[in-house]
Structures are given as C-alpha cells and as structure tokens.
Amino acid sequence: MAIEIQPLEQFKIDRLIPLHIGGIDVSYTNAALLMTVAVALVTALVVIGTRRQALVPGRWQSLAEMSYEFVADMVETNVGHDGWQFFPFVFTLFMFILFANFLGMVPYSYAVTSQIVVTFALAAVVFIGVTIVGIVRHGFHFLRLFVPQGVPVVLLLILVPIELLSYCIRPFTLSIRLFANILAGHTMLAIFGGFAASIGLFGIFPLGINILLVALEVLVAALQAYVFAILTCLYLSDAINLH
Amino acid sequence: MDLSSAKMIGAGLACIALVGAGIGIGNVFSALINSVARNPAAQGQVQPFAFLGFALAEATGLFGLAIAFLILFVF
C-alpha cells in the first residue's frame, strides 16, 4: 500500500544526448530540452502574433501585444525613457522565465528554473550587465550609488559598506528567490502527492489541498517572472538614474 | 550526537525563517486590505505593489528553506 515517493527525484537531470567536448560535459539534458522548448514557444508566440498585423487583433496578436505592453509599461514606469534601449533584454528575460515556470507546471515535464545554475546564470547576466551599463554611463560617478546623499560623514563609514554589500549580494538574492520558490513549490506538490498516494481513501484531503497548491504555484510561477523582471528594471534604474 | 542527527536538527531550525515570512505576508495583505477599505478606487494602483511585496516577503522564508536543503544535502 505504501508507495515510496521521492519529492526531490523530479529535479534529477538526465542526459538525453551524452556529449563530451575536451573533458567538459556538454550533454543535451532534459533541462536543456525544456529551455529549448521555452525559447521556441516564446519565439513562436511573438512571430505568429506579429505576422499578420490587423487593426482588430486576433487571439495570437492580442496575446503578443499584451505581453509587449505589459513589459513596456514596466520598463517605462520603473526605468524611465532612458531605459527604453534595454526593453528587449527585459522582455526576453521576462518571457523566458515565465514560459520556463509555466512549462515546469506541466505534469512530468521539468522545472528548469528549479536549478540554481540556470537562475544564477540569469542573475549574473543582469548583475554584470547593470554594472557595465552604470560604469559606461557615469564612469567614476557610478560609485555615488554607494554614497547616500545628505548623510553625516560618521554615518557614511557604516552606510557605505552596507550599500556595497547589498549591491554585491544582488545576484544571489535574485537567483535564490526564483530558484527557491520553484524548488519549494514543486517539492511541496510532490510531498502532498505522496501523502495522497500513501494513506488510501483519506488521501482525498491531501489531494484537495494539492489542487489548491497547483493554483498557488501557477500564481507563483507568473509572479516570480514578474518579480525577476521588475527587479531587473529597478537595478537598471539605479545604474541609469543613480537614485 | 552524531552528524546526521545534528543535520536534522539544523534543517528543522532553518525552518524558523518561516516565522518572518508569515509575519511579512500578513503585513503586506493587511496593508492592502486597509488601503483598499479606505480608498476602493486605489485598488488597481496598489494591488501590483501588494503582489510584489508578497513575492519578496515569501522569498525570505524560502531562503531558510534553501539553507535547510544545503544542510541536508550538501554538507
């Protein structure tokens, strides 16, 4: 009767096409497959959505337009007009994470964003990119970001290291937030699934909870993509507008 | 006490982080309800911020979970 369920087994990476180049394992894994699918779906949505541009949009076109306007609005309000050149970056980031999260919610697929290496790579790109943008835009003045205005010099001795530290841990908080949300959500679903499977007839209760949890996880999947994108916008705004 | 039981205790202790996350999420939504009750017209403006705050507050609890996983599976 007792069915053994390993809640963490769903995060196992399988090599679909083993491939070694110069001693480095570059196998095509199930995570890579899901990332490819996510990129293909985003591309398909935007390409199909903009292929026939009607004045009264159809389903695909309005979906593409809605996502465009959503991100455009986010960039406009948070970064301002100077941030417009980074709109493609934020849009790509948002759509990729959104689709990766939603694809992870499909049963028996794979949640790519539950791998810290994926989210950390994204966050590192954001962090390094934002720093470079700030330095290119403001040069040495960029360091003013770490010095709050109108603060006594004595307090600066404490505040500057804190600001510097909080700037440097950004890639970690950004990546761990996304990774931990998806990991915890999927683990929780598997644990409640394990309850439902192992206690027989009374398993209907954990099953009911699980259905509600799936709804919560869909919300979290969209919300975390939004949070990642909006934090990217805020960091960009820091680098471009210097507070 | 051997290492594995110490690990279990440590992972359990890491879950105390959820206290803060719970308080934070409660605060966020109580503030949302307060502001919407005072000015229902502002709902559209404050709701995105509420969900942003919810996601950020929830994430702090999950950092504790990440630590629990680190303790259990990495060390």
Account of the protein in words:
The complex is a heterodimer of chains A (243) and B (75). Chain A has 243 residues and is mainly alpha-helical. Chain A has one domain (9-241). Chain A has helices at 30-49, 59-78, 87-105, 116-138, 153-168, 170-198, 204-241, and strands at 15-17, 20-21, 24-25, 28-29. In chain A, a hairpin with a 2-residue loop joins strand 2 (20-21) and strand 3. Chain A is globular, with a radius of gyration of 22 Å. Chain B is an all-alpha fold and 75 residues long. Chain B has a single domain, classed as F1FO ATP Synthase, CATH 1.20.20.10. Helix content of chain B is 88%, strand content 0%. In chain B, helix 1 runs antiparallel to helix 3 (43-74) and helix 2 packs antiparallel against helix 3 (43-74). Chain B is rod-shaped and about 60 Å long. Chain B starts with a helix and ends with a helix. Chain A binds chain B through residues 173, 176-177, 179-181, 183-184, 220, 223-224, 226-227, 230, and chain B through 51-52, 54-56, 58-59, 62-63, 65-66, 69.
Largest sheet properties of chain B: none
**Within the CATH hierarchy, at the fold level, what is the topology of chain B?**
F1FO ATP Synthase
Largest sheet of chain A: 2 strands, antiparallel
Helical run tally of chain B? 3
Query: Would you identify the regions of chain A where 5 or more consecutive residues have pLDDT less than 50?
Result: none
Instruction: Label the overall shape of chain A.
Output: globular
Greatest contact pair?
A: A-B, 14 and 12 residues
